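Q: What residues go here?
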């Protein structure tokens, strides 16, 4: 099994970026570019609110916020929004990660990959199996429980390996315009309609002048 040294650990949040768009991930984490729009601002404020709340203990549930995570087997580190520790019948405390997201559940599994990575880190850190967690979406203001089955765990491990490969190569993939680009805060930096596959700046300028 691969074990990554501390200096090679990569952020868990990059998994969500990679699953959404490999070029977006490279622009943010390799080229250190960032752009903010209404969607990212709302997401940032939701995370800040989740982290700033007090730790709590109610009945059989302990809640901790802004919990540091790491995994040498996945080569990842990060911060969990909320970890609920639920007391079992045997008296042990079962970690239950909760990740906060703005908007609604997505058609793809990028949010689930990020949450599963948190669970895998917690399993490695606490030597305990974690079967489920939850995504809290700000738009419906409801939780969606996620089961960490073997399919999702395999997707998450594969995504972590792809992330390390992207960093090792150190190259940003070419742009490719898709519908999802319109909601990306990096669209003005990525320029997928101008620099996308099969396009070049000169052709774009000629079209603009012709119009």
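A:
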């Amino acid at each position: 099994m691969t074990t990554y040294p501390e200096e090679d650990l990569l952020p868990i949040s990059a998994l969500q970026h990679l699953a959404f768009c490999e070029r977006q991930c490279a622009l943010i984490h390799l080229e250190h570019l960032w752009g903010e729009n209404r969607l990212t601002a709302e997401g940032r404020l939701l995370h800040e609110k989740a982290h700033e709340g007090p730790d709590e203990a109610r009945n059989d549930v302990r809640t901790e916020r802004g919990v540091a995570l790491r995994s040498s087997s996945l080569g990842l580190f990060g911060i969990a929004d909320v970890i609920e520790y639920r007391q079992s019948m045997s008296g042990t405390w079962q970690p239950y990660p909760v990740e906060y997201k703005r908007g609604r559940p997505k058609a793809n599994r990028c949010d689930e990959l990020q949450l599963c990575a948190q669970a895998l880190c917690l399993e490695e850190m606490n030597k305990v199996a974690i079967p489920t967690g939850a995504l809290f979406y700000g738009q419906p203001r409801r939780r969606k429980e996620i089961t960490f089955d073997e399919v999702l765990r395999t997707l998450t491990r594969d995504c972590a390996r792809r992330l390390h490969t992207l960093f090792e190569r150190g190259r940003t993939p070419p742009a490719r315009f898709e519908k999802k680009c319109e909601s990306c805060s990096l669209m003005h930096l990525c320029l997928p309609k101008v620099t996308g596959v099969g396009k070049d700046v000169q052709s774009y300028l000629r079209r603009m002048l012709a119009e």
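A: Context that may help when evaluating the design: The chain has a mean pLDDT of 85. The helical segments are 13-20, 22-29, 38-52, 110-126, 150-169, 187-190, 192-195, 201-210.
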